[in-house]
Amino acid sequence: MRTSQGRKMLEAAVCTVAAALCLLSCSQGGEGKVRSVYYWSTVMDIDSAKQRFLGEYGVNRMYVRYFDVVPGDDGRPAPNATLRFKTAAPAGVEIVPAVYIVNDCMAGDTAGLAERIFSRVTQMSETNDVRGVREIQIDCDWTRRTRGRYFGFLRTLSALAKAEGVEVSATIRLHQLAESPPPVSHGVLMMYNTGDFTDIACQKPILDTRDAAPYLRHLRGYALPLATAYPIYSWRILFRRGKYVGIMHRDDDLPVLPGDSIVTRTPAMGDIMEAARAVTRRRGDANREVILFDLSKQNITRYKPEDYETIYNCGGV
Predict the structure, then answer these.
(1) pLDDT digits (tens, 9 = 90+) for 6-31
(2) What pTM, to 2 d.p., does this model score?
(3) Are 111 and 152 in contact (CB under 8 A)?
(4) What is each CA distance from 194 to 35, 64, 129, 169, 308, in whole angstroms?
């Protein structure tokens, strides 16, 4: 009995020391780093819980999705799912408007697209009293087929923005690390969506460093300043007879039939920290700004309070 109790006490002490050493190592070099979040919704609603999260963790910057750009009925790119401001943007936090562009838009006519996007972003900021915008971010899963047109669009947008004292940044997906960087001031490396969420056998579709490893070998030589975004979200995925049906954001999103399976995929803290260390080993400056995806009630209560602090701090490991 004494031996068993002593073993348990020793194991607990070892775990406590290990946790303390991890926290200490993560805290070193944390000064001067930027703490950011994405806000990826159709409604701007900064309630008390979100405001508390921003203040408690000292969030400096918030990347806010303003609207999507999708192929319209006439085949030309058109805005969709525009953000509605239920509340004002949070005070004391830099707002970076973000625009998601469906890659198919880059396969067609993009004449005037940069001008329309810049005008719409500017108008939305002015209408909703979003002041001091210094950066616009473009999110697009471009490929080699659409690279030329996409890069041309970015050059035009950057020239328009520069004339108004605004920079343009872009998201960088893992597979894009093997390509030439886009012509923007800097990028955000998306350290998530690494696996196939449509495969029921894939246990870690949101983040698995084993899946990311082949792409990360390009990180050290990637010729663009980078920040890195890490996932704090979860997926509920519906499968029918083992086949993917869809992601369920709400219980009534999709019809659930007898025999269907709903699986939940959530990145573990260990996976997030392993990913942060993998980025730091190859490109320490890519963790000078750590961004959490994304700010929602579910995501900011999913982990322990100290876990969010650890993610932000471990950007400097």
Answers:
(1) 444 444 443 343 334 344 444 444 55
(2) 0.89
(3) no
(4) 23, 23, 36, 22, 21
